[in-house]
């Protein structure tokens, strides 16, 4: 099983997304987001799947939902680092990885 590490930006983005959902949508929508991230984290930890390549060789992109994508990198066969949870409506040029 691989280890999943969250960098500080990913952790901040994650909680900001949850706060946004709780304030503007519902507890149900926030829980769906939490569950989806947990599901993806487990898939990546088990090594069952890799997601979409980006224009950077070491970084991949996974769609969490229509509004949010997760960017992560595979450090080696044993470690994956979550980099950012990104709102897909934001300008991608501002994405700091």
Instruction: Report the sheet-strand fraction.
Output: 25-35%
Write down the CATH class: Alpha Beta
CATH fold node name: YaeB-like fold
Total tally of structural domains = 1
- Report how far apart the termini are: 25 Å
Reading side by side through the largest sheet, how are the strands ordered?
A: 1-5-4-3-2
What does this structure look like?
This protein is an alpha+beta fold and 97 residues long. It has one domain: YaeB-like fold, CATH 3.30.2310. It has two helices and five strands, in the order E-H-H-E-E-E-E. The chain has a five-stranded mixed β-sheet. Helix 1 runs antiparallel to helix 2. It is globular and about 40 Å long. The relative contact order is 0.21.
Task: Give the structure's gist in a few sentences.
This protein is α+β, with helices and mostly antiparallel strands.
Question: Characteristics of this structure?
Answer:
2 helices; 97 residues; YaeB-like fold; alpha+beta; 5-stranded mixed beta sheet; globular
């Amino acid at each position: 099983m691989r280890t999943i590490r969250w960098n500080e930006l990913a952790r901040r983005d994650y909680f900001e997304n949850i706060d946004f959902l709780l304030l503007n949508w519902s507890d149900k929508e926030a829980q769906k987001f939490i569950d989806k991230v947990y599901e993806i984290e487990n898939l990546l930890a088990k090594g069952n799947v890799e997601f979409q390549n980006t224009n950077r060789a070491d970084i991949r992109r996974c769609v969490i939902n229509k509004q949010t994508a997760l960017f992560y990198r595979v450090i080696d066969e044993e470690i994956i680092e979550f980099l950012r949870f990104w709102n897909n409506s934001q300008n991608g040029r501002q994405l700091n990885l």
